[in-house]
Structures are given as structure tokens and as C-alpha cells.
């Protein structure tokens, strides 16, 4: 057992010693801060040829380094990095090493071959454009014969349209960003980089929510190495890209322009509307929550919610299938006017609100507008004889919601299903009609219609008894009752009762059905025999109306 313990201790000691040695080894490693030139591209050219110097530990501030071609100073252009410096070849540099001087230290690199016969590119203008752009190349050693000059970008030839020893003109092809290369009399030289201007021709959605993917179509989207898409200045994530399309995800932004930037060159802007999720909580008030309102055509209604914006032209409100007129918008309130009611639709219609055709959410449930139906509160009727069997009837009907937006508009008044012309003043309507006696009844069905709905009332005239008298002729005992409101035989629910009062107690006589019945008089028979001096009374009931009359007879004898 002791032997095993000693072996374990030895193993642990060896591991510890090894770890200490490894730590010591790594502690002794030195970081290389030496500046080194690894390569140059291209390795040959002439005056003004752009050359990239590749290496490491370069100063990133241009003024801290000087470039030499065969001991002749070149110019550093663009922004240097830790491992790349862009420079141009000086005129008549000759063939020799490329070197960098930093402070008092000189680092030598590969040999650059100076082509004395190569064309010299002094300037190119313009350096941005699109396919078909004509560029002017100034320099020297060009051929006066246009066919002996070649201009290209990325190996794609341009069309040389004019040439002289010191100037070329060329129309550019469709390609990506790249250096302009000129070949004259078989010798090439490379000039400045030409950058194509990205173009947006179309967008599949000019309004969308954050996170939606929209597609841009156009040209030169992948012409350079650093494409960017910004929504009103906010960069967006590119989902996919080709030379003619970009799928991009909408960032959190605001209304404004979309712009594509490739290698620092901006495209044309295209308008875009950033949609927000609007919310419609209630109507006319926020607390308590009101989900439905009642009104008529032209009623003003407010939708309470959020994120509506302030642009009336971008808000749309629908009541049922109709667009309502939006009169005012704030970020949390939309005011609209109820549209004209369509008679074919239901009275209650759902209210919907849209921002740029995107519908709001309704967290408290659907919002509705109910068009008010008419009602009848009271009816009176007067009947005046005119002679010749004709009578003048005047019905006064009072109620609510008779009118639409103008007096008498969309209003109908019917009596027993027949429409009559009515004079309407607010919520009061008067029908005047001349009819024969057959029109006289105790009960009439009065209906009012407006375009929001209808209402029917079973109007009954009051039964009034003016007087009654007894008579007996040839053993037939009758009671004749006069008054008005008795109606006619058209009124089926009618009855007559006769009673006598003795010691404060009513005793009803056995009355037979009426012999005759008109609106102002009825005659009935009875069979009871009495000889007394008492108070007698009659009751006339028509539908739900009843009239009564009592009087004392000094001598009431029934034989």
C-alpha cells in the first residue's frame, strides 16, 4: 500500500515540474514588431500606376511613412492599414526595389519593373457613373489610332470612341467596381478605380413593419465589397444580394428614404413608409371602455388608441363596408363622421381603422357603430265629419330619430300598412287624410320607417261614453249607448256590459251581443227584469280601451 502512495506522489511531482517548464517557455516568447514588406501588386507598370504594398506592422497614419520606387518617392493615396499601403508610381521611376521609410528606418521590398513604353495615366474623369458613361483619360503615350488602344475594367472591354497621344475617350461596359486599365500598342497600365453608382428601380413594398423583408431591384448592388442599405439613415440587415436585387430586413426606423451605398457611393433615394402597429382600444372615451356607440348619419365618433400618427391622409376608417370621412388625427385619437346608412345592411356595423392599409388591433374587442332606429312615443287622432259620408282624419305621431341628415329624408309613415304623406318637423309627424266612414276604427297600426330601421305601434283611440238610455219595444229590452271611439265591426275585440248598483255592490245584467255598432253609437239587448230606482252603469270595451258611464234612473222598469 505504501508503494502505491509513493508512485502517486512521484507522478504529481513530474506534472508540476512540466507545467513550470511550459510556463517558462511561453514567458520567453517575444512578439515580432518588425515592419516587413511581403509583396507588391502589380509588380510592373509605369507612372501613376496604383500599387498595393502588402506586409505587416505598417503605420496606419499616412504621414508617418514614405514610399520609394527605385529611390524615387511615390505618393501614398487612400487610408493605410496595418498590412496594406496604397501608393502610385512616380514619373520616370525606373526599375528597382520598392521601399518604405519610417522615421530613420528603411525597409526594402520586391523589385518593381518600370515600363517606359507603357501608357501613362495622369487622370480619369469621371470616376463614378453607370454603364454607358463616357470617361476621359488624360495622360501620354496613347496611340493615335483608336483600334490600337484598349480600355477595360475587370477585364471587360470598354468602347474607345476617340484617341490622341495624350487623351482617350471610352464608353464603359456593365461590370463591377474596378481599376481602369489602358493598353496602348500592346503595353498596359492601370489607373484609378471607377465606381458604379447603385440604382434603385423599384421596391416591392414601399411600406412595411419593423422586421419585414422588402426587396429592392435595380443595378450595381454588388459592384463593390461593402454594400449597405439604410432606412432613413438607419442601416438594415441584408438577407441576400445580387447585382440586381437586395432582400433587406426593415430596421427600427421612421418614415424617410431608402438608400443603397456601395463602396461609399450612394444610390438614388426611394421613399419608404415605416409602419407602426396601431391599436384601437375604445370609442369616445378611454375609461370605462366603450366598444359601441349609437348615432345617425353624420354623427362624429372618436376612436381612442395609439400610434395613429398625425397624417389624416394615411388613416382610413370603415363602418361596415363604407369608408367614413376622417376629420382629425392625433397619435392616440382618430375622429370620423359616420357615413350614410345603406338600407340593405344591418343597423350595427363594425368599425375598422387602418394606417396605410394595415388594420389596427382591437385588444378590448371589436368596435361597432349602431344606427338608431325610429321609435314612437305617442299618437293622437282626431276625426271630423265633412259630410257626404267623408271624414277628415288627423294623426299626430311623436317619437325619436325620424329624420336623417335633412328634414323628411328617408322617412315613411304607414297606417295599417298603407304609406301616407307626412309633414315632419323634427321628431313630430302629422298625417292628414280624408276617408269614408269605413276607415274609422278604434285601433290602427302606426309604423315609422327611416333608413336605419322601423318601429310599429298599435295605436288605440280612447273609448268615451257620452250617455246611455233604456227602451223596451214589443218585449225587446235594449240599451243605447252614445259617445265616440267605439270603432267599428272591424275591431273584433269588443264588448258591452250593463250593471246596477245596490248598497254599493255592482250586479251585472245579462247583456246579449250588440245589435248595431258604430264609432259613436251602439245598441245591445238584455233579458233581466227589474223594477227599482237605482244607479245603473255601462262599460264599453274595445281592444285594450274601456269607457264607463253611470247614472240614476228614477223609475227603471223592465217588463
UniProtKB/TrEMBL annotation:
Gene3D superfamilies xref list: Immunoglobulins
Which superkingdom does the taxonomy of this entry point to?
Bacteria
The IPT/TIG domain is annotated at 34-115, 118-197, 198-275
- Please give the Pfam families that the UniProt record associates with this protein: TIG (PF01833)
The UniProt keyword set, sorted, is: Signal
What's the protein called, per UniProt? IPT/TIG domain-containing protein
Amino acid at each position: 500500500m505504501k508503494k502505491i502512495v509513493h508512485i502517486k506522489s512521484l507522478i504529481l511531482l513530474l506534472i508540476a515540474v512540466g507545467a513550470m517548464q511550459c510556463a517558462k517557455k511561453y514567458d520567453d516568447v517575444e512578439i515580432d514588431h518588425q515592419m516587413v514588406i511581403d509583396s507588391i501588386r502589380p509588380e510592373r507598370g509605369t507612372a501613376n500606376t496604383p500599387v498595393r504594398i502588402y506586409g505587416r506592422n505598417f503605420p496606419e497614419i499616412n504621414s508617418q511613412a514614405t514610399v520609394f520606387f527605385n529611390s524615387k518617392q511615390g505618393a501614398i493615396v487612400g487610408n493605410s492599414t496595418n498590412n496594406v499601403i496604397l501608393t502610385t508610381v512616380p514619373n520616370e521611376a525606373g526599375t528597382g526595389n520598392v521601399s518604405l521609410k519610417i522615421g530613420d528606418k528603411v525597409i526594402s521590398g520586391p523589385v518593381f519593373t518600370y515600363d517606359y513604353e507603357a501608357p501613362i495615366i495622369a487622370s480619369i474623369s469621371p470616376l463614378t457613373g453607370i454603364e454607358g458613361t463616357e470617361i476621359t483619360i488624360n495622360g501620354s503615350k496613347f496611340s493615335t489610332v483608336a483600334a490600337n488602344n484598349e480600355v477595360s475594367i475587370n477585364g471587360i472591354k470598354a468602347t474607345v470612341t476617340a484617341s490622341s497621344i495624350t487623351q482617350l475617350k471610352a464608353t464603359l461596359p456593365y461590370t463591377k467596381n474596378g481599376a481602369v486599365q489602358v493598353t496602348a500598342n500592346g503595353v498596359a497600365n492601370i489607373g484609378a478605380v471607377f465606381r458604379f453608382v447603385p440604382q434603385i428601380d423599384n421596391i416591392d413594398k414601399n411600406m412595411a413593419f419593423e422586421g419585414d423583408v422588402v426587396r429592392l431591384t435595380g443595378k450595381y448592388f454588388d459592384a463593390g465589397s461593402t454594400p449597405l442599405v439604410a432606412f432613413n439613415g438607419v442601416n438594415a440587415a441584408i438577407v441576400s444580394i445580387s447585382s440586381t436585387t437586395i432582400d433587406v430586413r426593415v430596421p427600427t426606423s421612421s418614415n424617410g428614404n431608402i438608400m443603397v451605398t456601395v463602396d461609399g457611393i450612394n444610390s438614388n433615394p426611394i421613399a419608404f413608409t415605416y409602419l407602426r402597429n396601431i391599436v384601437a382600444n375604445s370609442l369616445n372615451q378611454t375609461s370605462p371602455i366603450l366598444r359601441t356607440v349609437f348615432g345617425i348619419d353624420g354623427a362624429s365618433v372618436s376612436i381612442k388608441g395609439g400610434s395613429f400618427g398625425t397624417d389624416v391622409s394615411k388613416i382610413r376608417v370603415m363602418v361596415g363596408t363604407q369608408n367614413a370621412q376622417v376629420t382629425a388625427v392625433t397619435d392616440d385619437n382618430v375622429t370620423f363622421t359616420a357615413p350614410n346608412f345603406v338600407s340593405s345592411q344591418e343597423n350595427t356595423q363594425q368599425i375598422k381603422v387602418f394606417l396605410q392599409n394595415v388594420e389596427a388591433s382591437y385588444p378590448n374587442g371589436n368596435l361597432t357603430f349602431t344606427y338608431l332606429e325610429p321609435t314612437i312615443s305617442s299618437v293622437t287622432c282626431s276625426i271630423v265629419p265633412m259630410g257626404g259620408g267623408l271624414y277628415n282624419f288627423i294623426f299626430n305621431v311623436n317619437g325619436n330619430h325620424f329624420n336623417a341628415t335633412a328634414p323628411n329624408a328617408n322617412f315613411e309613415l304607414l297606417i295599417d300598412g298603407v304609406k301616407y304623406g307626412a309633414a315632419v318637423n323634427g321628431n313630430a309627424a302629422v298625417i292628414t287624410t280624408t276617408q269614408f266612414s269605413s276607415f274609422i276604427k278604434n285601433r290602427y297600426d302606426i309604423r315609422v320607417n327611416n333608413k336605419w330601421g322601423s318601429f310599429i305601434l298599435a295605436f288605440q283611440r280612447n273609448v268615451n261614453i257620452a250617455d246611455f238610455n233604456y227602451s223596451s219595444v214589443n218585449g225587446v229590452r235594449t240599451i243605447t249607448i252614445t259617445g265616440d271611439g267605439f270603432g267599428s265591426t272591424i275591431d273584433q275585440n269588443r264588448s258591452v256590459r250593463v250593471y246596477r248598483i245596490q248598497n254599493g255592490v255592482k250586479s251585472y245584467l245579462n247583456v246579449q251581443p250588440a245589435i248595431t255598432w258604430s264609432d259613436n253609437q251602439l245598441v245591445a239587448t238584455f233579458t233581466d227584469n227589474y223594477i227599482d230606482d237605482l244607479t245603473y252603469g255601462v262599460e264599453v270595451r274595445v281592444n285594450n280601451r274601456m269607457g264607463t258611464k253611470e247614472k240614476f234612473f228614477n223609475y227603471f222598469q223592465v217588463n
